[in-house]
Amino acid sequence: MARKFIVGGNWKMNGSKALIKSLVQETLNGASWDTSKIEVVVSPPAVYLDAVRQAAKPEIGVSAQNIYSERSGAYTGEISVDFLKELGVEWTILGHSERREYFKEADEFVGKKTAFAISNGLKVIACIGEKLHEREADQTTAVCFRQLKAIADALTPQQWASVVIAYEPVWAIGTGKVATPEQAQEVHHAIRGWLAENVSAEVAEATRIQYGGSVNEKNCVELAKKPDIDGFLVGGASLKPEFVKIIVAGEAKSA
Ligand SMILES: O=C(CO)COP(=O)(O)O
Questions:
Q1: Catalytic residue among 168, 188, 242, 251
Q2: What distance in angstroms lies between residue 11's CA and the mean position of ligand 1's atoms?
Q3: Distance between CA 109 and CA 9 in Å, rounded?
Q4: d(CA 98, CA 79)
Q5: Rounded to two decimals, what is the model's pTM?
Q6: Is 246 in the pocket of ligand 1 (CB under 6 A)?
Q7: Measured in whole angstroms, how far is the alpha carbon of residue 224 from the centre of its chain?
Q8: Is 96 marked active-site?
Q9: pLDDT tens per residue across span 49-104
Q10: Taking a C-beta distance cutoff of 8 angstroms, is the pair 38, 254 a contact?
Q11: What is the secondary structure of 166-233 as a DSSP string?
């Protein structure tokens, strides 16, 4: 079964009304792609979700960057799944390395929020990935599998249909130091193997695994060719018109 390539743009804590106009309304809405070959999702900061959902054409999915594990109440500053549903936001990123590092999100908390989001009808881009010292200590797959297990432990087999895994080696994020296609493929293949062994062969075959970390218009073509790379989660380059070139590279893979 072919997995549909999925390109996500994680704006992180960047953006403005002006960017929504130039990037979403003009550049992305003006570009065209075959939705049977590629899925496109943009993830602006929470305060701009409503504006982006309203500005973006329907074939662009919109994603939050985080949610909380309760629907409402005294949780100052947090984002409810109900808010997203009311706005027509279909996705959330969870477990991004910046959330894990700066906001101390633990593996189990990411797993809990992943299950909660899916139970409430959202689709989830769940992020995993090792830090540089972990790679250097040969801990890459051990770290990825530990983070993956916490997600898998929280999910039923059916819920995997709503999950995309983003493999984002922390040393490649925002550094300009992209993983080579071979390095990325090796980890993606291992992740798929882990899913086959610990969830099911069907889930392993169907689950899309995005690569994230300094993806740009120049390196995306070679990365996209690798058999276990089913998409990208793009940071910096998703704020620029070159994001369209990354979408086109993904579309070409399915052609
Ligand atoms: O963290 C990322 C996407 O979630 C990757 O960011 P960069 O593409 O800026 O390295």
A1: 168
A2: 9
A3: 23
A4: 17
A5: 0.98
A6: no
A7: 15
A8: yes
A9: 999 999 999 999 999 999 999 999 999 999 999 999 999 999 999 999 999 999 99
A10: yes
A11: EE--GGGTTSS-PPPHHHHHHHHHHHHHHHHHHT-HHHHHH-EEEEESS--TTTHHHHHTSTT--EEE
pLDDT, tens digit, for every residue of 158-169? 999 999 999 999
Residues in the chain: 255
Q: Which H or E element spans position 91?
A: strand 91-94
Amino acid at position 25, single letter: Q
Of the chain, the end-to-end C-alpha distance in Å amounts to 15
pLDDT in tens, 99-153: 999 999 999 999 999 999 999 999 999 999 999 999 999 999 999 999 999 999 9
Looking at domain 5-91+116-253, which of 2.120.10.80, 3.90.470.20, 3.30.43.20, 3.20.20.70 is its CATH number? 3.20.20.70
Q: Where are the domains of the chain?
A: 5-91+116-253
**Ligand 1 atom, smallest distance to 12 CA:** 4
